[in-house]
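Hi support team,

I submitted a single chain yesterday and got back a structure, but I'm not sure I'm reading the token output correctly. Could someone confirm the output below corresponds to the sequence I sent? I've pasted both exactly as they appear in my results page.

Thanks,
R.
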Amino acid sequence: MKPYAVVAITKHGVDIARQIQTGYPLVDVYYPAKLARGDEEALGIQVYQGSVVQQIPRLFPAYQGLIGIVSLGAMVRLIAPWIKDKRTDPAVVVIDDRARHVISVLSGHLGGANQLARDIARVLHATPVITTASDVGETVAVDLLGREFGWVIENENRITAVSAAVVNEERILVIQEAGERDWWPREKPLPPTIRLVDTCDAANDVPFDAALVITPRLLSPEETDRYLDRGVLYRPKVIVVGIGCNRGTSAEEIDRAIRHVLADARLSPLSVRNLATIDIKADEPGIREVAGRYGWPVVTYSAEELNRVPMMHPSETVFRYVGAYGVSEPAARLSSGASEWVVEKVKHGNVTVSVCLVPSARDEKVEG
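Hi R., thanks for writing in. Yes, this is the structure output for that exact sequence:
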């Protein structure tokens, strides 16, 4: 099954649907059997009996996006019973029967309908119709900022108020202490109502109406009061946790150790990008279980690779067991690309933990 479904109900709609399939191979095409042309099976096109009304209940939850070649009003009526939440609803786009306009209808931002409308419009040489305020105003989309990089919003309850401040051209303060710096993709500069600084300290004397804070750091109570009363907190994926452990160490002990070290370092687990360790621990059940709980990739290195990293406190004991003078420390450095540690090494029972921050760069990748 492809990510998107195209549904047509008229003769002209079938022509348009087939054109989309040719130019945009990420779609499955559906139209009534009475409009079949005989080559549908060869082209992978699905024909259905009866009304399109009967198709929507199964297509709406099954695809990332639904493209209807119907009127806007008809599509609204078709999908109305199935709409639940903008965080889970699929993108919905409609196209008129002459393919002049491609309209983003539902889940424009989070569901990707705005971009889908633009993509389909290019295929059809049509005009995309986008009504989302931040897109029309060419300003920051608060709910999408950093999404392509995996950033996580910690306080989603503030999105609506801050989004309103952005589109109403109030004074917006962006504090970015870490993470990818090219989150503003447009060629034009940031709107004059948006001011960007590198740290919370640098923002102390800056007047603002709403804030966007991008940091892996746990804010102080004073910073929380000042910046998050009307502010959104983003957690960029910039923390690499190096892990060493004795064979058979439980996931619970590993999990506690990681959380304890991060808490002591005043860092959020939501900003963990991946775990890093030696290759002979690649199948360690406790490490794999913890990684699976939080969706953290596990990156591994050979003893030879780890031994190339200079360490302040190499361990002969560790070398005797695994052939490397350290595991968590060099693994964290290698995976993050950092030149130093935030936490060099802390031992908790059977677990050693090291922490590094990924330098701000767009092209950092994880292999594991």
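A quick pointer for reading it: Confidence is low (pLDDT under 50) at residues 362-368. Let us know if anything else looks off.

Best,
Support desk
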